Amino acid sequence: MAWFSDGGSVLLLFLTAIPVGVFAVIIGASQFVSIPIFQLFFPQMSLGGIIGNLRIGNMVRDAVALIPVRHDVRLRSMLKFIVAVCAGSVIGTVGIADVPQTFLLPILLFAVAITEAAPWISRHMHRHALVFALLLTGIYYGVIGAGGSVITMAFLRVHFPRDEQIHSVRVHMLLLELLAFIVSVGAFAVAGEIDWAVSIVWGAGAVIGGFIGGKLLRHIGKTSPASQKFWMRAVAAIAIAVSAWRVLR
Question: How far apart are CA 54 and CA 50, in angstroms?
């Protein structure tokens, strides 16, 4: 890509990714921040290209976060959920691989709606419906994934309902999300939507930001659910505004 020969653009993309990585760790739902940034950097890139190139940083960040807690993973009991999420991720990825950016606005509106509704849905869900719910979550990860961790954690509370199992919810959310991203990256790569130069530069900045965010989180404490929801809604509104502006201009 021509932008890669411009050292200033590469540096700006890298530096922009760092605060996004910080935001991802402290607040979550970083896709709502990343997507409008990529729209501004790469106005001609397809929707699949935007989502696919963001996946590398997401994948590495989740892998790094999972390493310290890998011994807490209950792989055998999660197998059917893993299959459901990975299958859904392939379906979602294939569905948007070559879709233009104009489709991003309705997808973002859907993303906000499903993120808001997931906790309510999980409270009224029967355990037997969980596999199907995670299949749909996998499709959502493949399509956009913004706020996917919130959705996955809400559904996993059905499988881990006790308060003392919150740690297990977080660990297995990371596992499912990481596997969904790995499968999605593979599918986007096969479709030719990954620009590895873009992905590596963005991913490197995001990982550094994630490391800084982890350090900050130890000092400022866990973000309250109310604050998290406020910031998620704020950045989602910005992402929707940018997408609407690009469609209407």
Answer: 6
pTM of this structure: 0.74
Tokens of 221: 């404490």
Q: Confirm whether 113 is domain-assigned.
A: yes
Q: Which token pair is 103? A: 């489709």
**Residue 231 and residue 150 in contact, taking contact as beta carbons nearer than 8 Å:** no
Could you report the per-residue pLDDT of 141-171, keeping only the tens digit for each? 888 776 677 788 888 888 887 766 777 877 8
Query: What is the C-alpha to C-alpha distance for residues 246 and 193, in angstroms, rounded to an integer?
Result: 21
Q: Does 1 reside within a domain?
A: no
52, amino acid identity: G
Residue 215 belongs to a domain: yes
R_g over Cα of the chain:
17
Does 230 reside within a domain? yes
Within a 13 Å sphere around the CA of 209, how many CA atoms are in the beta-carbon half? 26
**Per-residue model confidence as pLDDT tens digits over 67-93:** 877 888 888 889 999 999 999 999 988
Task: Report yes or no: 175 and 73 within 8 Å, Cβ to Cβ.
Answer: yes
- Does the structure show a pLDDT above 70 at 221? no
How far is it between the farthest Cα atoms of the chain? 54
Amino acid at 148: G
Q: Please identify which residue in the block is written with the tokens 């950016």.
A: 101
What the block records as the tokens of 175 is 């596992």
How far is the C-alpha of 34 from the C-alpha of 102, rounded, in Å? 17
C-beta of residue 122 within 8 angstroms of C-beta of residue 155: yes
Domain count, the chain: 1
And the tokens for 183? 């499968």
